[in-house]
Amino acid sequence: MAIFLIAFYLIIVITIAAIIINTESSGKALGYLLLVVVFPIIGIIVYFTFGVNYRKRKIYQKKLLADKKAFPELDDELEKSIKETLSKHKDDLKHFYKLATHNAKEYVLTPSNKATLLINGEQKFPRVLQTLRNAKEHIHIEYYIYENDAIGTEIGTILKEKAKSGIKVRMIYDDFGSQSIRRSFVQELREAGVEVAPFYKIRWLFLANRINYRNHRKIIVVDGNVGYVGGINVSDKYINKSTSHLYWRDTHLELQGPSVLSLQYTFLTDWNFCSKQSIMFENKYFPVKEIVNQKAGDQLTQIVSSGPDSEYNGIMYTIMQAIILAKNEILITTPYFIPNTSLLDTLKIATKSGVKVILLVPGISDSYIVNAVSNSYYVELLRIGVEIYKYEKGFVHAKTIVIDEFVSFIGTANLDERSLELNFEVNSIVYDETLAKQLKGAFIEDLKYSKKIDLSAWLKRPKSVRFTERIARLFAPLM
């Protein structure tokens, strides 16, 4: 017995040392230390399952090096167009653009785009299906969750038909988020000629660190000139049929124009990583001159991706910079609100500077623990003037930000540690009054189905509930 106790305490000491040495974030380190000290066995299992960067540096540094060599030089005509467009806009935009593109050519700001706002699966999927049917050269599709239900089957049928007709079809699915299609559905696609690759395949689901660092991106690129990005996965629940037991509110974006090249870049570097192929970045995938000459629209658009392979956190930095530059109004919708200290302070500074900040979060959540942690942040925001609404019509899953009726964020990243630190994410940023007003209109419509949190009433909630939320918040860095 003494030997077992000595071994047990030795493991605890080793685990504590590993947490201190290997965990870069002090908040995350404290969270793991607290878990190990209070619940040793559970804490040790959780840390070595979720907290250790098994091979992360080795794997993702290789991907990063490949990315740097991959993106082609931009056509002179496109660079000229960008400079001309920037010269017409205020200095704030130039500062924002410089941040997003710092050492990241793939995040280039592109003019002459057409961005179409899509509300819920009811608007997204009919357009996606038509675009897929119209494909002439290639289809690239990448999803965190792809379900083998009605809409998943319909898309799958088109992918198989297109592959059989000679069109190149490539698909990336996250091996954790899309567990239901791993076997028969994926095999059917492959038999029809679709090239399919899981992102960071999980072999031992409950024993491997691979359930971290998931690919949370939702990307479709067709023929290099039409793209889709946003929060909507491939699943019937996003379509809100009459038989649905829960209403899902989400937002997506259809893109045409040079911004599609950045989506293409993100997909192909992910594809080369998880398929072990080396697809060349040639004209058929990056038709720069053709897209520039088409002039699909007049919107400035940027695609920003980030994840464990990023040199710096482009998504979090661009969100924070946009909040800092806001002069009048910030409208945020997020299903998971667990901000790190930097993001939380940025919101506080904006509010104290006289900017109106409204936060829309779920009233109905798909995670009790996440909801409890999110609740713990509201008092400090409410006290300084942030307006917080809880959506009650269903589950709000959209990840959007509208700033000063000009800058719009629509993408896959939640405002939580997992999205901003662990997952592979992608956001679109559109600089355009028309789209911003449309997105703001959708936000105002959502508020009609939401309940505003009153600070005095919020403080009157049972002390046991508030205490539980504060305890849950201690583990926020781990979520």
Please give a structural write-up:
Helix 9 (184-191) links the parallel strand 3 (168-174) and strand 4 (195-199). The strands form three sheets. A 15-stranded mixed sheet has the order 4-3-2-5-6-8-1-9-18-16-15-10-12-13-19, with helices on both faces. A two-stranded parallel ribbon has the order 7-14. A two-stranded parallel sheet has the order 11-17. It has three domains: 2-52, no CATH class; 63-85 and 113-297, Endonuclease, Chain A (2-Layer Sandwich), CATH 3.30.870.10; 314-478, 2-Layer Sandwich (Endonuclease, Chain A), CATH 3.30.870. It starts with a helix and ends in a 6-residue tail after the last helix. The longest helix is centred in the first third of the chain and has 21 residues, at 2-22. It is an alpha/beta fold. The chain has helices at residues 2-22, 26-38, 40-51, 56-70, 76-87, 91-101, 120-133, 150-164, 184-191, 259-275, 288-294, 314-325, 341-352, 368-375, 378-383, 417-422, 433-447, 455-459, 463-473; strands spanning 110-119, 138-143, 168-174, 195-199, 219-222, 226-230, 248-249, 251-256, 299-306, 329-333, 337-338, 356-362, 387-391, 395-396, 400-403, 407-411, 415-416, 425-431, 450-452. It is globular. It is built from 19 helices and 19 strands.
